User: Fold these one by one.
Assistant:
Number 1:
Amino acid sequence: MCLGLPMTIVETDGISALCAYRGEQRPVSVLLLSNPPVGAKVLVYIDTAIRLLDEDEARLIANAIEGLSAALDGEDCDRFFADLIDREPQLPEHLRSD
């Protein structure tokens, strides 16, 4: 299973970009995007940026990854899923059997 990472573009030449996440930097292809600027948040799968993210979505994805890591380490992970405290997670429309 691959996990998409919410990375921030540090520098780019329009074809590739140096992206950062949690103190790690790596080269990433940005050919699927239309000239993303430095500072943009992108969702990266297998060293390819597949779409732009807004700040809130990037934060939610990062929190989910941190929460999964905490859960796997046997730590409390509730703080990473604060957006779910007042609601139940919803299945995407195409997975519902209504």
Number 2:
Amino acid sequence: MLDQVKDSYIRVSGVDKRYGGSDASLVLQDINLDIRKGEFVSILGPSGCGKSTLLKCIAGLEDVSNGSVTTRGLMVDGPPEGLGMVFQRDMLLDWRTILENVLFTVELQGKASAEMRARASAQLARFGLGGYENRRPWELSGGMRQRASICRALLTDPDILLMDEPFGALDAMTRDDLNVEVARISHETHKTIVFITHSISEAVFLSDRVVILDRHPGRIVEILDIDLPRPRQLSARETPKFGHYSSHIRQVFTKLGIFKNA
């Protein structure tokens, strides 16, 4: 534990988050979490447990009520440099082409250039979207749109990637495909990734550690180490060890009263 704290790249220390002034509005309570550089951490819990709120606090999009959040040893008081974010919805603008959507953030930052345009095209090709650069978002499937949003988040090569339940609205086959893609990104780039999900199997498949949250208010009840070899393929889900991790998490949720039968 001491080595983990020493090597912390993202640190959440004693964080409470409330909206308004009453205890009834307490969303997160005493969250303590240290994430190492290059680690993939999933935050798993039921609806209303504050998963997305915690991610927004790490991203500097929400102020904490108590405690602190640091990245790379610096206090978070706004979106830090070197951070990419993928939201639940793809957030693509229908009046812009796919390439223009990928370039949108760097345009807002005044960093658009021929080099960035070439990088965006290469990124789209890598994600299977070559030839779709000039299409509009409404011409693409949900999975393709979400791939484009990941391309946008990765365009500036951030070392921290925050993903807020990005595949929740997708069909099962597309979700599996994108899980493998994200696992590949994690393995090849060693980015520090924090991933929000409701899915036990998704959390186990992707993660080095799974943070399990209870609700009312959101608080950490367990942090589970996932010891599965990388690179990961979907066949990992058929192994006894994968089944053991999934069963353990279901048992935790059953004890919390979130699952009635498991």
Number 3:
Amino acid sequence: MESLFVPTLIVALAEIGDKTQLLALLLAARFRRPWPIIAGILAATLANHFAAGALGTWVAGLFSPAQLGWSLAVSFAAVALWTLIPDRLDDDEGARFKRHGAFLTTLIAFFLAEMGDKTQVATVMLSAQYPHFVLVVIGTTLGMLLANVPVVLAGNFAAERLPLTLIRRVAAGSFAALAAYAAYQALKLGALT
């Protein structure tokens, strides 16, 4: 169950204040139809994170366990630092697709916004670290929904009242802890070989 719970927690924390959360807020304000937006977030995240998880699982097979551990440690440390940098949303993000309706606009905008985003990178790393690929994808998708659905439903109210700096620091600390754990595992595996 760790393959489900850790990714859920990590992505939910990392997503708060992320540009896709800001995109969810923008789409909610533009369309004022929460359920098609939520469905679009779900579909886009599942597609994006499934591809990212598959990549992570494939990459994990290319390295020895110790090499993978060190690669994960460095990657998690980099994402920890990246998490401390606040995201901002480009003014036209999502606007160019508005004519396609709430669901399709959200699906396309979220899928594109997640490309190369820290939660997508985290999904690659988490699926490389944990053995249950499907649980990791479900967990990262749940994390995205936990962070974004309240924003869609509550609009500005929730986003303006969250302590974003503190949440970013907690998320960065979580990634740093994963980096330390991966380094510990790599050291342990290196000593065994």
